[in-house]
Amino acid sequence: MFGLKESWAAVIVSLVPLTILDGSTFCVCDERGDIDGPTAGLFADDTRFLSRCVLTLNGLRPLFLSTVQGEPFSATFFVRNPVTGGLGRDELTIARTRHVSEGMEDAVVVRSHAARPLSFTLEVELATDFADIFAVKQYDFSLGDPLHARPLPPIAHARLGGPDEGLVFASGDGYPGRTQIFFSAEPVEIEQGRAHFAVELQPREQWSLRMYVLPAPDGDAVSRRFAERQLTQARALAADASTAWRLAVPKLEGTWDDLAGTYRRSLSDLESLRLGEHDGTGGLIAAGTPWFMTVFGRDALITALQTMSLGPELARVTLKTLADLQATEDDPSIDAEPGKIIHEMRRGRAAQVWVPRYYGTVDATPLYLVLLSELWRWTNDGRPITELRAPALRALEWIDKWGDRDGDGFVEYDRRASIGPLNQCWKDSDESIAFADGTRAAGAIAAAEVQGYVYDAKVRCAELAREVWRDRELADRLTREAAELKERFNDAFWCRRGDAEIYALALDGDKRPVNSLCSNIGHLLWSGIVDEDRAASVVDCLMGEELWSGWGVRTMATGDGGYNPLTYHNGTVWPHDNSLIALGLARYGHRSEALRIVRSLLAASGSLDYQLPEVFGGFPRSEAPQPIAYPTATKPQAWAAGTPVLLLQVLLGLEPERERETLRVHDGEIPRWAGALRWGPVQAFGSSWSVRVEDGAVSVTTA
Length: 703
Fold this sequence. Notes:
Helices cover about 30% and strands about 20% of the residues. The chain has an 8-stranded antiparallel sheet, with helices on one face. A 4-stranded antiparallel sheet has the order 1-2-3-4. Strands 5-10-15-14 form a 4-stranded antiparallel sheet, with no helix packed on it.
């Protein structure tokens, strides 16, 4: 390609990345539509099928005008000609429209604005290396280490097949996949992946070209006609799915711009992250673009929990998909045990260099049970609960048999595989589980919030066993176990930090309380495991100056030895973390503090073009007039996109009341800063509901 490490500074300056995607097929390109640079490409099945696609006029790249992306799966790039080879200033403009579905389709329209005939050469330079997505991600300065990354594979051999085979790229290292490219107009010549077109235009005339790029992971060859038909049909399906999504989700109209704008952006981001039917995961939300467009169990579950008010379908799809991927065997090489919910799934070359399925997450399994219960609470429909009884029982068995590694009644993690994160809770960076003095915890770790999730899962499954599965013996056992866990937890995790007492972040391998003050205590409120007489103390910690930044609750207190406002989990602010904390505060009756989070996070979003990132810096609001960007933050990211939906639910105090099959809202007044709003139709219990806020009062009516 070119000298990657030597040319890196130039790439950083020139490349403004844009992601165009349909499910797990996506294109990363620059603002002109060019695929150029070590992290750019057309990806499918976690493999890069096009690593270079650069358009030139008379040997020079066109000049940027603007980019318009109306849908996640399409964008149009507008450029103008450089002064070269007899072309005068601005005599040509090019509209380059790109659609991504099961491949990539480029429609190039060149328009002459000259009063004279023009002749020029248009060239498309194409190449691919069939690199796995992990290798490419290492060249992302934010998430990898480009200066020490392993070399990318060599450029694949290109050959021009017959008229019905197109331009074919095939790997020379044994990988069976191939890339086929077809053009609507015959090029003058194709040499080493460069397609040359000699164009002559009369005054005000235009010339057009279509290019079809079809990835073939299995190496199956297709005809030109088949490629055109397949990409056209896939584009239509993507458009239909987008329309169906927009018609199905509730609309929000409101006078508070931060809320209305963030909610709309949230729906758009969630739409863009949905995996397609051709991915085999139909409708599940991927974790984030561009490197995480695949199944992540924890991320999918939390996003589905956050967005129950958008309708039950996402929860149903998530539960069914993750049940199909549930581990059935004990396999230390991928941290799998029977009943465990998957952490991450990969395909293609990424699966070859890593693993197809990896199970190193401790919290996805109890969260699976929480979502199963939440689906029932929003629908009162026992059919999916009955259908998923077997995977639910396997998940419960995993908690007791495999999750509790030493029989002390707590669920721990201790990585057995040679791959994956050392810390397998949601704060999964290496330095995240540390004592107040900054010393990292070691051994089998029992994370505090995981015990809360397990407690909540057993309480909820006791309800399902009693009401749906009609297994009273199981219901009584789970109720007893949950009560015992709550008592045991409140005894073992309550610890001293300086002059104060707090809930520990975790217990280390020697059962010592990890006494750092972290946002995880807010998740304990959400789960309900906190003793009532300690709730106020937890709230004071969350909203005190050490954890509260002004924009949200920090992941770690400023007084702890590991604190840094720009360390991934040790002082930053995570929107999804705060949304669950807000829900926990409301659960324990601390509504004013919950609304403080709602208002601050939405104000942060308003200052960030209405898009909440995965994470931002934990600097005090008094020092930062807007949130400080975090260098590795993913945008859009699933549970960040789900956050505004849950914040809206917290603001309204909206909860399902299953016994009466209705939605109820907070009895008190909505603060003035929330303004007026109308939201609906919200789907619950097979009915549509309309929610209004007028003059500080909330009302819910059937739509």
